[in-house]
Amino acid sequence: RQIKRLADYQAPAFLTHSIELEFVLDPAATQVTAISKISRQGAHQLPLMLDGHGFELLGIWLNNVPLTDYQQTDEQLVLSQLPDEFELKIVTQLNPAENTALEGLYLSGGAYCTQCEAEGFRRITYYQDRPDVLAVFTTHIIADGKSYPHLLSNGNLIADTLLANGQRRVSWFDPFPKPCYLFALVAGDFDELTDSYTTGSGREVALKFYVDKGNQQRAVFALESLKRAMLWDEQEFGLEYDLDIYMVVAVDFFNMGAMENKGLNVFNSKYVLANPQTATDVDYFNIESIIGHEYFHNWTGNRVTCRDWFQLSLKEGLTVFRDQQFSAAMGSPTLCRIDAIKTIRTAQFAEDAGPMAHPIRPEQVLEMNNFYTVTVYDKGAEVIRMQHTLLGQAGFRRGMDLYFQRFDGKAVTCDDFVQAMQDANERDFSQFRRWYQQAGTPQLRVTSAQDDALASFTLTLQQHTDATADGSPKLPLVLPVRLELISLDLSYRQQHLLVLTEERQSFVFEQVPANVRAVVLADFSAPVKLLQQISLDDLLFIAANASDGVARWDAMQQIWSDLVRQSVVAAHPVLIPASLLAMFRQLLDQPLDDLEFTAELLALPGFDTLAEQYPQIPVDSILDTLQSFRQQIASQLTAELTRCYQRLPRQPYQYQSMQVGIRKLQSLCLGYLAQAISATVISQKNAAADSDVITQLLQQHYLQADNMTDRQATLTAAVQAGLDLAQPLLLDLLEKDGHDPLIFDKWASLQVSLPTEKVFELIENIVNYPQFSWNNPNRVRAVFSAFSHYNPQQFHRADGRGYQLLASIVGKIDHSNPQLAARLVTPLLSWKRYDEARQLLIQQQLGQLRDQPGLSNDLFEKVARSLS
Ligand code: HT7
Ligand code: ZN
């Protein structure tokens, strides 16, 4: 198994300037003819090395003469003694029907579809499958026009002819040189949704969405989102779309969320299709954000691309940052930020603390697919955000303008990006670059001292990053720290941006009145773990008074996290303090205008977030404490929760912020209320009455719902509280809408979140439904990712049954779809973070996986690193 290293990067010895591809489509024997124009780069006699994998080679021609003098290995074709400039023709044959890995050309529900990032193009033909070889692509697709009326590829349509044998031949030309990972082909019979967009400079762009038959109207929201994204990128960054047509195809078999192929995005149908009956508010949010993300890649990724795959964060971190800014502009910046912070605090902090820890620019890779991670994407976006914070909006824009001016049409590095930011603003970012080479989550320790006599306030910040599994160096980083000082009487407020560059620095503020409280790391201005000791009263003060909504929410999170810690130390759940309950009462009785934000303030942190606060995760204590807190809230605030729920008006569904807030707050109330009747926590006197009222509320909420968000809210509350009413309602959902794959997935995910042992029986049952398919990543994730991520009680069972189930599924899936298997295995990798008994149980499962014959590189890399 061959590890690739960033340090070994070498510029390509040859360049491919253009490639003309012809596909004659056939499910089991598609023929691909590739004619490339290639030239030697520099004076050398190195051979041309082409990557290829998993197809049959039918022939090679050099300048139209058959070539037989070549070497072929499992993964490469080596051609020696070539002229300086030449034309190479290669004919290959592929079997898309048997391609269950969903890389290269495959069939998805009867439609042909490609996925070439990161290294899927080599499954189509022999080619220099690396992002720094940019060629102009022409694509011809030949197929039966009746079965496949839509024959699509990148760029603009240039020809469409009927052949003598009744087949159709459609040709596309993409004038923008691109790396082969951006190549795409789709052939199928779809419903089409069409619109157009006129760019700021007056060019008309045709917009076309292709979806499964009958789903045309479900693509309307995605199409509207696309137009919003196109306008936003023009207004925010001055970036216009460049081709005559922008196409989006939705497919059901897909390994990730979506793919930004030039002019022809391919999407997981989950992130295109939406109507109120099938999609939740969260789905609508995700669709807008992912549609934006793929569109923004047209400039950050396609026009300027990566030199090598170690630079992945160049396009992904930057594009996530751009999609986050877009979502913030379309809705609430605070809520978007809270969303992003949750991802960092759960998955990213866990990755940093586990065996797969890597910097946002990794230095070595066995399987590239394993590095499409929350670190590269989301921490990468935080690193871009810090540059934005340090430079300000105008400075960041200057940097972006220079970046495009310098690198449009080129394949570049993360360093090139930072250099543009630095040069455009005449700043020195040399220390900042450490963020690209250093893995791990910095801890930021805060202490403060107030000197009333001198009217000064001193804040001391200290940073430290623990060693990580990859052994990368740990030097002091540049940490932008947003700070607000507020006096207790609210007469004084000052906001500052501190920049910590040393291991320890003190910042002194003069003319500060007595009794000031510091809000540190407002807006989560750096992706760090904040360590500060603050009293409950001060946290409640910050939660009520900080100017920054994120800081207010964060103060509530810290309160809960402190209470969980106290419970872990005491070995039993503590009582929720009266002052905290009083705050809940106040919020429930007078919800803020922003109801969605109120719901966030009233929500407990999840198991994953809390777990990341402990080097060794006290699984049972955290779970017991969370359960106790939910029940304490439910029993003490039953009346307030019921009142809050009942006061909120329900209206015919629209995806609109006021309504989203109502639904979220009602859902939160129902979640707590369901807990009130899940155990004998209500006083005997009121038990029967409360129980009836709450059961009725839940039932009505489901039955009267005109949308999926409310239905899902009831079902989640009922399943998690283990209520009897859950099963009949789930059956109702399945019987009415379970034929729709996306609803089936929701139904399955709800079932597997049941926190009792019965869940194993349910899982066995789900995989036997005709709607379930082991070859469809959405189906598999709906069951097994949902189980391992959203059912910590059963996944972390002390008898190991949860671990065993996941490991057996991972082992099975690895034969058909290694990329999917390697993603599913993630929750098992951090076994060292659990108690000894659980460590042994997980280790045993990982050991069996490692020894499985024919293990993929994808899975091997992760399991081996975890066990080393
Ligand atoms: N750039 C894409 C990353 C990707 C991918 C997408 C779909 C299937 C497999 C994939 N491998 C890598 C997605 C994005 O970040 O926009
Ligand atoms: Zn992306």
From TrEMBL:
Its EC number is 3.4.11.2. Residues 440-531 form the Peptidase M1 alanyl aminopeptidase Ig-like fold domain. It comes from the Bacteria. Residues 82-182 form the Aminopeptidase N-like N-terminal domain. Keywords: Aminopeptidase, Hydrolase, Metal-binding, Metalloprotease, Protease, Zinc. It catalyses: Release of an N-terminal amino acid, Xaa-|-Yaa- from a peptide, amide or arylamide. Xaa is preferably Ala, but may be most amino acids including Pro (slow action). When a terminal hydrophobic residue is followed by a prolyl residue, the two may be released as an intact Xaa-Pro dipeptide. One of its GO terms (molecular function) is zinc ion binding. GO terms for biological process: proteolysis. The keyword Metal-binding applies. Aminopeptidase N is involved in the degradation of intracellular peptides generated by protein breakdown during normal growth as well as in response to nutrient starvation. This is Aminopeptidase N.
